[in-house]
Amino acid sequence: MEHNAFASLAVLQLSSPCRLLTSACCPDKDLVVLVSRLGGRDRLTLWKMQGTKKWDIEVGCDESSIESVSALAWSPCGMTIAVSHGFSRITLHSVQDGHIERSLTIPASLHKSEQQHRITGAWWFPGFRDLPRSTIPDIFKRNEINTGSALSILKVLPLLDPLREEDHKLTATDLFAFQGTQTGAALKSSTPEVISDWPSLLPDPSLASLCPPILIDEQGKTTKDTQVNLSAEDENSLLVIGDDNGKLHCFLDGSYYLGPISTIPSTVPTAVFKDPKQPLFLLHPQTLGSDLLSAAFAPLSVDLPLLASHRIRDFARLSSAARELMWYVMRVIEDLREVWFGSGSLTGAREAGPKWIQLLETRLRDQFGQKEPSAIVELTGLLVAGLCSEGLSDFLSSSEQMSERALQKWESTVTDALVKLRDFSTLRLVPTLQRLHIILEEVRGWSLIPQIVLFGFNADDITHCLSSLKQAVFVSNLLAFQARRELGSFKHFLSFLRYEITLAGNSSETRSPPEHDILEVNHYLMSGLKTSQIDRWFTGPAPQFDPGDLGLPRHNTDTNKVLEEALEQAHAALQDPSQTSWQPVGFSVNCNVSTADKSHLDKNLWALVHDLAVRCQRVFAHVSKATARSAIVSGSGGATPFQVEASETVPGGACQFVRERVVRRNEVSHPGNHLQHLAIYLTSEMRPLFCLTRTPYAKCAAGVPLHIDVIVMECSIAGDEPGDVTDVHLCNAEFFDDEILVIVYKVRGTDGPMFAATVQYSALEYQTQSEGYVNGPARKDMIANVLQRLKEGHLWLKPIPIKRRRQLTACRDGSVSLAVNGRVGRRVVCILDGDGTTMDILDMEGDEDMEGEDETEMDSTGA
């Protein structure tokens, strides 16, 4: 046994008490995450193994949040940290600087009476590559996009213009903090709930034929939005979240929600294992708040058959593209609404006309004694008969609002707004809605395929979404038409004002002839200056009209004869020469109905799009949970946990800790059959025992496995001399890899020091227990039988065979927390003392002589 093994990488002296979770070590980088609590809020701190702090951030969603970090998991590529908070929120942080890449929310249950359940565990499993979809190689690099599908159509369309978004505001800490040690707070997202709850993969605007958004910082500088690229290791990966009600929540690629999988109510999974070759989970449910040994001994299997094919991912990409398009539409409409009506920091173009009217009427009332002045009547009399009252003449000739500078400002404000309404409606809204219509048409096609009935499409919602999209396209075109018409009337109105200002000034210069159209000016006075028709696109109820109300043909969308009906109407029109000649105004060729004014119709585009977003989100969210609805949860009584009564053999509270690990065996010699190892520390009968078990961990979860390999050790270690045995107290233990177990111990009856040691559990001599010796469903039954056989002399005790050890410099007494990384090339152990203020970091492959060497590895971590 080596007494001075392992090299000490660092000893961290922490300024505040921290927590070390078992999954705190990065799998492929020399990094470790600590959780602390400051001011009633949890913080995440990323440390390099050499002892330097990389970043420190708050993880609360807002100032009133009291959520605590309950679990964390690393992505397979090691570039993202998934952190679970309280009941339903998961944030994914970048390993570079800790910023939130995305935030996930577990949707609340439809049963409002059901209470929220706390998150108890998080696991992130790498994906598996299924067989190629075709024997033909992808020489055109289609990126698994089927030719002729909606995504392939969007791929060849021109990218729509990007939107300008405000980036996060810079703080004094961001500007002056030392690089690499900055402290940040989580930012509150401005994304509406209907978009944040929309199931989606990682954001990819190009998938929806959109340009990435342009970010604007506080100083007005524009930067391109940094997209989160999916690495090959993270593709098809599964982020699994477990709660205290026996539910598993899965996220494809760590983003796309697959729904809740119900196992056994009021239980928590002690650990979750995923088969590396198929979508199969094995777990051991444990009754909430019960003894550590009450967990089921035989595993419960959860099979997700829909994940075995590529259809779930194909539909997830459709959902992601639809989300990007819908979010783009909502932001464009919100931008147009802000330009027209204004916001807290921006004056809307709509306010210019009523403000000018108010100033004119105020002067007529205060200075010229008119009791009920009407600016519209005054301007109409001036326009039609040339009658200009004294008050109006004074206002036109001497008011500040009638100066050329004021008129230019008014003109530029209203003109820019109307041009934006016209162009954005034509160049952004309509093409985006048409792209969304293409996606919904493909979703409608999916709903007609009988082989994917498990997806659970709602045909009524899909039909309603398609109808609403047609209305939105029509209303958007009407908005562009109305903006174009009002822009022309507004220019004639300003030309009229400039002409009358010249007349009111009694200038001796030669007057130019009027350039305005009286009818256009009158139209603006009636429906543009004080009240505008454009207001109806942002106020009032959502449109409910039928295409037939607008003189358009009514097609039966329930049949597939829309194209045939259109061709029949075109053929009939060509046969009758009178229908192809010039028709008078107010007459519709196709329907023989009057095209009267439809200005009374509701045209609230914002309400229409919001209702459309809610219905579309409902369609995609319901289908995304098909994976959970089709899950096959199997396991007989052996996989059901019970509240095992305390017995004389295993009294309650005797188990101090249980550690477990699944070792993947050779797939050639042992296909689909892995080994589950348990490390159980018992303090019963005044004799501490350390028990290791080994069990075949196959898919068959029915009953107790055929045999169990057991070794029982007394808590003592052998010295260098024969017969030299020292009793020890185990403080903690953790499986390091498929061969080594790390334990932390101290000599019993002393206050320290503590030692970190390794045990090669794969090479120990286990004793096989047949099926007849285990007659209960829980681990406590297995331990009770082992102790009974030990008492009868069928099993023998041995000291713990320590291979290597090292005395710890920081941890002296009390409980300790342990986190390990046994990956080849890393192999480190982090040990945090009971106070949470000192942590030892050990290199398990290094020696004592290596401590004096320069350690410059990982200076470019994450590059």
Q: In which range does the helix fraction lie?
A: 25-40%
Strand content of the residues, in percent? 15-25%
Count of helical stretches: 15
Oligomer: single chain
Shape category: elongated
Largest sheet: 6 strands, mixed
What is the C-alpha radius of gyration, as a whole number of Å? 36 Å
Which class best fits the helix and strand makeup? alpha+beta
Poorly predicted runs are 166-171, 178-188, 585-595, 636-647, 699-704, 850-863
The number of E-state strands comes to 35
- Average pLDDT number: 80
Terminal Cα separation, in Å? 40 Å
Verbal overview:
- The protein is of the alpha+beta class and 863 residues long.
- 28% of the residues lie in helices and 25% in strands.
- The chain is built from 15 helices and 35 strands.
- The strands form 8 sheets. Strands 22, 23, 24, 25, 30 and 31 form a 6-stranded mixed β-sheet that branches. A 5-stranded mixed β-sheet has the order 2-3-4-5-12, with no helix packed on it.
- A hairpin with a 3-residue loop joins β7 (80-85) and β8.
- The longest helix is centred in the middle third of the chain and has 46 residues, at 459-504.
- It starts with a strand and ends in a 16-residue tail after the last strand.
- The relative contact order is 0.12.
